[in-house]
Amino acid sequence: MDPTIPSLIIPDTRTEIFRLYSYISGFNSGDMDPAMDIEKKITSATKDSITAEKDLQTGIITDLDEGEVFLRKNGITNDRLHDLMGDKPRNKRLVRKVDLLLMPLLAGTYMLQYIDKSALAYSAVFDLFTTTHMSSNQYSWLASIFYFAYLVAEYPWGYVAQKTKMAKVVSGNIVAWGAMLMITAACTSFTGMAICRFLLGVFEAPITPCFMMIVGMWYTRSEQPFRAGVFYSCNGVGAMVGGLLTFGIGQIKTIAVWRAIYLILGGVTLLWGLLMFVWLPDDIMSAKRFTLEEKALLIGRGRLARTGIINRRIKWYQIREALIDPQVWILFFFMLLNETINGGIASFSKLIIKGLTGDALTTVALGIPFGAFQVFWVLSGTYLASRIPNFRTIVMFAYLIPTIIGICIMWKVSHKTNKVGVLFGYYIVGSYVCSLVLALQMPATNLGGYTKRTTSVGLVFLAYCVGNIIGPHAFLAKEAPIYQTGCKVILACSSAQAVLAISLRLLLIYRNKQRDAAAANVTGVEGIEASGDELHDLTDFEVSPLPSYPFLPGKMC
Question: Is residue 315 very low, low, confident or very high in pLDDT (cuts 50, 70, 90)?
Fold first, then answer.
């Protein structure tokens, strides 16, 4: 074997044979003669090792994660990688450096995305209905059509992002949706608004899935929930900033207020997209602001989770595996219910508050604390999930309770005699957003195999779109300003979500116990630092149960 090949890439065949022997000794099914089974495993291991070595020597690398290819090409040895990962001060400095680069970009984009999506709701409080002669039913369809576009565009954008440069896909779409907002200001009818709203959904579709994959690429499992929470909490910041902006824009008298909202917000977003094009890196390997050793350390940190960095090859068996994984389907239905709540609250909450005040500017001002509450819910919940091991599903369950209480208050408390109580219910109802953030991050955190992760993220966002399409139609114009049917739907969805959160926890606990039991049965592998699984683009079902990596976490629950 070529001595220049880093030892961490191709496990020594004898070591692999010894590892397989230990594996079989603890897992013999009894259906096959042990000697024949061992011989079969040894033959397979030897062939795999020889094939991998030949591929490296001839330059044919077809099935490795790009992070591992980067390590090969730059001669980062196993010993050097372990030295880097053992340097805790260096790790802390690197995480801070990544935070300073990525978090402002992701957070700023998310804030603008929320404000821009909410432009329709802000406009409805002012003069949108009178200027465009739009009905309440048409308004509901405008709210939904955005997510029809999201639904149509999500998978194509996901494919493009995997096959090309993710950062350029993100920044290009930000510029496009900023331009589309400005074009919307020229509309004079429901038809024109619907077309622009649909295209806005097309251009915003790749943002959240790409951001979840970016966080999964750059951070470890324990770091991911809080980082996702940081940028997602900017929905709350966006609610506050958007409220202040529209309160100021509402003073304009020269043109229709809703047109001014779209023009100003679109211009700001377009400029932000150009900034993202310059600063957001496509991946770890091509990031210009990091040294070779920093890139190697970031890749090594990703190896601990055995989820990989990036692999541009579409693997159909990983798509099939995603479709039969119960965890993926629990998250799918959890997201469907969550976004049914969100679709109604996002589109009609301001109209509910306007029913209390009767004044557009007061309504916008009273919506600002809702954003502050959202920031609190998301940051506190994701912080707890990051600091306490295996606590995410508990947070997902607990943070649905304020939503249940809040919607009951909004439904049952008198809107005439107890307006303060209704406002309090409105402010706490948004706690479900924290559960959303944790559910969104789970596919990128818990699942291995790049194609499986992207497929699972896509399925979860399919549910995200369908829920947001359904939600607005539960709020019937004839029931304004209380919207009893909408309140009942939100109560039912949040209660069902609580059941799914418990079910997900039980499933992950069961899988963790299976993995721990499998690892406990393996003996005689002390000193073997890498099984070789983490070098390939393997799914979480394929990765060996061996305790072969000293810091390997289980599925976080």
Answer: confident
Higher pLDDT residue, 350 or 487? 487
Taking a C-beta distance cutoff of 8 angstroms, is the pair 507, 499 a contact? no
Residue 369 belongs to some domain of the structure = yes
What is the length of the chain? 557
> Tokens 């009894």 — which residue?
30
Candidates 312, 301, 296, 281; CA nearest to 65 is: 312
pLDDT for the residue numbered 304: 66
**What sign has the CA pseudo-torsion 524, 529, 531, 533?**
positive
Q: What are phi and psi of 189, to 5 degrees?
A: -145, 170
Give the Cα separation of 118 and 327 in Å (integer). Answer: 32
Distance CA 266, CA 263 (A): 5
CA-only gyration radius of the chain, Å? 26
In this prediction, residue 556 carries a pLDDT of 58
Helix (H, G, I), strand (E, B) or coil at 64: strand
Q: Angle at CA 98, nearest 5°, toward 295 and 80?
A: 30
536 three-class SS: strand
Domain residues for the domain of 468 are: 88-512
Among 450, 458, 502, CA closest to 64: 450
Is 411 inside a domain boundary? yes
Domain presence at residue 489: yes
Instruction: Count other C-beta atoms under 10 Å from residue 44's C-beta.
Output: 12
Residue 281: CATH number of its domain = 1.20.1250.20
Which tokens go with 30?
A: 């009894």
Which among 429, 437, 377, 370 has a CA at the least distance from the CA of 403? Answer: 429
Helix, strand, or coil here: 146?
helix
Kindly state whether residue 379 falls inside one of the protein's structural domains. Answer: yes
Q: Domains in the chain: how many in total?
A: 1
Q: Determine contact, residues 529/548, Cβ cutoff 8 Å.
A: yes
Closest to 524 (Cα-Cα) out of 542, 549, 553, 547: 547
Does residue 335 surpass a pLDDT of 60? yes
State the average pLDDT over residues 155-184: 91
Report how many helices (DSSP H) and strands (DSSP E) the chain contains, helices first: 25, 0
